Every structure is written in structure tokens, then in C-alpha cells.
């Protein structure tokens, strides 16, 4: 293998293997594709009736989309949702009931560092929306319901630790009309309007992080198979060089052993035929 011709053959095998590896990487790029365009579309603000309908499940076409809605925050229907994380700190959300012309929507208004701060914020919000009712134009990200957490017998049954619109509907005052299956994480309003950043800060709340959904990824299994195939070819190029070098080595040694055997036989024959 240290001979010049086999070193040259090794370099050629490495070049071929590198080409096969590059082809495998190129094929892999087509095997796993992300819908980046769909992720960008999620940030386009659409009216709520274009995103979802009351009673409809939160599917991939609606979940994570930014929507706009106009409605009234219903007095007496604010809820503290505990065990909500924000910037690595556990706190609570202030959630409300937004009555829109299309249906009733659960909204997450802001994050508080503690339940006590959230309850004080609800007290101030109640004073604002009691009389007269203020119609708000809100914007937020539509999200699917959390998993329902059933309290243990030792826990307070009225304590809310998950954002489940179906549960919150039962805590709201009686209302007419359908409700949405998901909830909206509200974005800060335009400066100077209710529930803008400064208004939330005055209530002791912070804007809830609204993270866009990850781009959906699809796998083309045929392209993935081709990518693996190119990697196998790259490994075979090195193995092929090794096999050729070994075959040449074995052939040389067999010829040497054969020549040595013939030479030994000649010496034995000559020794046997010589007179004593």
C-alpha cells in the first residue's frame, strides 16, 4: 500500500469518495424540505373569520397564525392561569373572554410574575370594562388548547393551571353563541390604545412571548434512500482500493511462494541425482 502506484490509487479513491459524499449531501437537501414560505405566511395578520370558525378544531392551517378580531372584554370572566413560564421564570397569565361578532374567544392578555400581581391586574381590568363596555381591536397568535390538568383531591378545584378554552367556558358567565376551540395570545396594541405595552406595564403585566411555529418539514423517502446510497458508494470506493491492493499483495506472495517452492524442488532434485 505504500508503493507509489497504490498511493496514487488511494488519492483517486478519496476523490471519488468525496464526490459521492457531496452527491449524498446534495440529495439529502432534497430529501428533507421545510415549508419556510408557510412559516412566513403565519405572520400575516388575517381577520379571525379567515383563520378559523367557532367550534372548529385547531388544525395546522390555523394553529400559530396571527389573527385580528374586534370584540368586548366581558366583565367577570377574567381568569388567572398559573404555572406559566416567561424568560425562565414561573408566573401566571391573565386570561379573558373576548366576545366577538363571530363567536366567543379566550384570550391570554399578559404575564404576571405572581398570582397576586395577576389578581390585582384583574381587579383593575374589571374596573375598566364594567361600564361602559369598551370595544377593542386586538391582534394575537391563535394557539391550540393545552392539555387539561385534572386537580387532585387535595388541590383547589377552581385553580387553573392550563390554558383550556373548554374549561374556561364553564367558568364564564352564561352567554349566547358558539365559542372557539383555541385561544389567542394577544400582541401589544398600538401605542396609546388599551392593552398597549405601557398599559400592560401599568397593570404589572408583561407581554406574553408569541413564538411563530416552526416550518413544517416533509421527508421525501426516495431522495433519502438515494442519499444513503451515495454514502454507501463513497465507502465502497475506499473498500475497492483496499481490495485491489490486497489482491495484488496476495498475488505477489503467492508467486514468491510458488517460485520458492520450485527453487526448492530443483535443489532437492539436483541433490538426489548427484553421485555419492
Describe the structure.
There is one protein chain. This protein is α+β, with helices and mostly antiparallel strands and 276 residues long. It is built from 7 helices and 9 strands. It has helices spanning 4-31, 36-41, 48-51, 115-129, 165-171, 197-202, 221-273; strands at 32-34, 46-47, 66-73, 79-86, 89-99, 104-112, 135-143, 179-186, 217-219. A 5-stranded mixed β-barrel has the order 3-5-6-8-7. A two-stranded antiparallel ribbon has the order 1-9. A hairpin with a 4-residue loop joins strand 5 and strand 6 (104-112). The two termini are 49 Å apart.
Task: Give the topology, please.
Layout: H1 4-31, E1 32-34, H2 36-41, E2 46-47, H3 48-51, E3 66-73, E4 79-86, E5 89-99, E6 104-112, H4 115-129, E7 135-143, H5 165-171, E8 179-186, H6 197-202, E9 217-219, H7 221-273
Parallel strand pairs: 2-3, 6-8
Antiparallel strand pairs: 1-9, 3-5, 3-7, 4-5, 5-6, 7-8
Helix pairs in contact: 1-7
Based on helices, strands and strand pairing, what is the structural class?
Answer: alpha+beta
Order of secondary-structure elements: HEHEHEEEEHEHEHEH
- What is the CA–CA distance across the termini? 49 Å
Count every helix, treating DSSP H or I runs of 4 or more residues as helices.
7
What about the largest sheet? Answer: 5 strands, mixed, barrel
Residue-averaged pLDDT: 85
Question: In which order are the strands of the major sheet placed?
Answer: 3-5-6-8-7
Query: Which radius of gyration do the C-alpha atoms yield?
Result: 37 Å
How much of the sequence is in beta strands? Answer: 15-25%
Low-confidence stretches: none
**Overall helicity:** 40-55%
Q: What would you call the shape?
A: rod-shaped
Number of strands: 9
